[in-house]
């Protein structure tokens, strides 16, 4: 069994330093901090997984406007939930958010089980750290968190060797987090730990000069701040190719199909995808006889966490389509989005929308990463 590294400071000294820093420099006006209900904290915590605060804020505000409580979220169609999630990436989070809301309504009478860490962690998409954050932030009761920001802070302060995703290393970090977490001011302490990691102990450029622990940080003393935490062992990222069919009818509508509920872009609406031009032509011969192919658009690459997808858009026209089917629909690019769309698909549909170019509308390059 791996032993927890020795603490860099006595517990009360660590807490005092952190909270004094937080009182002056912490973030006190985030939307989910007013008011701190379990529902609002939970939605924010799920959105903040692998996503920065500045990106999350407008999504959170739109989400709260449409789904002000867990019952309204549970009663919604998944399409609408994923539509409001479009652009945040990691769409399994959105699907699990919807599932968890339904579980809370059906099994807990609409009340989050914040009395129990195990019950919270059992909800879809909620692990030990997120459950702790919801309990601590919404009730003020002592609960320990260990999100990515906290892992980075503790790893650097104690120069913890090894990738934090390894079970033995993670156990060391949980031991440290448990040791430092106080009985009082838990709301502020947990927020302070997250803020310290997000604003000073950043991944690429840590601001050690302003850190309240710069005199005791082991990584800084060694001049090795950027070595910690250690990165996940890298594997070669494969590249896959696909052709996306941009099939339009005489009215300019585009054919979309819904992805399976699990897997890549689960539950989102996408363009029909094919592994080869022969497969695409065979599909057209069967479902859309008489369709005319246009010149393919320039291929582009969409990057996921575990592979790169090279996409070739293939526009086509058809006067009729035999058997659209339940999992397909015609979509008018000129109308506002009302369904969950995979990010590259949304970009392609936007390119089909009629518009008048102005200085404000001028196109600009962008990139995204999302599974």
From TrEMBL:
The entry's function note states: Adenine glycosylase active on G-A mispairs. MutY also corrects error-prone DNA synthesis past GO lesions which are due to the oxidatively damaged form of guanine: 7,8-dihydro-8-oxoguanine (8-oxo-dGTP).
Work out whether the entry's keyword set contains Ribonucleoprotein.
no
Native source species: Halomonas salina
Protein's recorded name? Adenine DNA glycosylase
The domain of life is Bacteria
User: EC annotation?
Assistant: 3.2.2.31
Q: Which CDD domains match?
A: ENDO3c, NUDIX_DNA_Glycosylase_C-MutY
Where's the HhH-GPD domain?
47-199
